[in-house]
Amino acid sequence: MELSGTLAFSSGKHGDYHIFTLNFEKRSVWKLTEGECWNDCPKWSPDGSKIIFISNRSGTQDIWIMDGDGSSQFPLTKPGKWHSSPAWSPNGQQIVCCANYDGNINIYLLDLQGKIVKKITDHPGVDYSPSFSPDGQKIIFTSKRSKNPDIWVYDCASGTESQLTHFEGRDYAAVYSPDMKILSVAGLIGDDGRENLEIYLMDADGKNKKRITRNLGQDRFAAWSPDGKKIIFSSDRKDGQNSRLIIKDLADGKEEQIFFDREKQDFEIGAKPIGSFLFTYLPEFILRKFYPAGYFGSERYPDWKA
Question: CB of 73 within 8 A of CB of 65?
Fold first, then answer.
């Protein structure tokens, strides 16, 4: 599978996540954030020059922004409130996110100075994971107002909200494709008490919902390729503990795990395999087999720019 462009994603374990980028042509990995803090949910700006992300380095979970190479990092929001799931408007002038400004988690529209432009939702139920449509006319989000998390849409022109899904389990984290298809994650709790998460595709009106992954485990954090022909997601299908990034071609159904030099990730989370005694001289790929699966952390929240 030929791939091009640059991927932003977070990697780590036990809440210690940092932002990385991966250039597909060179297979080179860059670590953009540092320190003993949690950095997550990266999103490229529409022009590909900047990245917004979540960080708790100031004490609370705030929205930060940085250049695409990791330089010029600064907070957009002030400490004291909880923020999550930031996403750019198509023109790059505003950011939609969820926050608890009034004690409840609602969807807000912010400018690039972090000021509230508009409160999008106002409901006692939790509203989260917002994302703009490509034309900027709609904001899709997840809401718990009907008890189970379902997908809702806010019409920016009329200010009305409509429910798209009525799933008995969780249905959340929806994103639009360039041609207005909707990708979402849905899951049910199995008899073993573990939730099986799969990725679904549906039309803009919520119809023709189709399951596009099949795995007894966690397929989530789904995003589109820049051309809308592939999806990228995080899956623990290999060992049930480590989540790795997988690309799926929607035309032929082929899947491919993204392999790259994980030295920077292993160093960040202290997961470098070390041999001792009789194992001192074993190659690293063999040493890895003697470690528990969760030792090497996970990748999540991929965002792909051309």
Answer: yes
Stated as kind and residue range, the H or E segment containing 265 is helix 263-268
- Do strands 50-55 and 106-111 pair parallel, antiparallel, or not at all (unpaired)? unpaired
CA angle, 139 then 147 then 143, to 5° = 10
- Fill in the amino acid letter for 206: G
What are 119's two structure tokens?
């409160």
User: What distance in Å separates the CA atoms of residue 89 and residue 48, rounded to the nearest whole number?
Assistant: 13
Spatial separation of the C-alpha atoms in residues 271 and 294, rounded to whole Å:
10
pTM: 0.90
Helices and strands (H and E) in the chain: how many: 2, 24
Spatial separation of the C-alpha atoms in residues 238 and 100, rounded to whole Å: 36
Three-state DSSP at 221 gives: strand
Q: Tell me the one-letter amino acid at 163.
A: Q
Which 8-state DSSP code applies to residue 230?
A: E
Q: Distance between terminal CA atoms of the chain? A: 16
Instruction: Answer yes or no: are the C-beta atoms of 9 and 302 closer than 8 Å.
Output: yes
Residue 262: count of CB within 10 angstroms of its CB: 18
* Joined tokens for residue 112: 């690039």
Confidence of residue 125 (pLDDT cuts 50, 70, 90): confident
The stretch 290-294 carries a mean pLDDT of: 50
Cα gap 32→128, rounded to integer Å: 26
Nearest Cα to 222, choosing from 251, 202, 252?
Answer: 202
Give backbone dihedrals phi and psi of 229, rounded to 5 degrees, phi first.
-95, -15
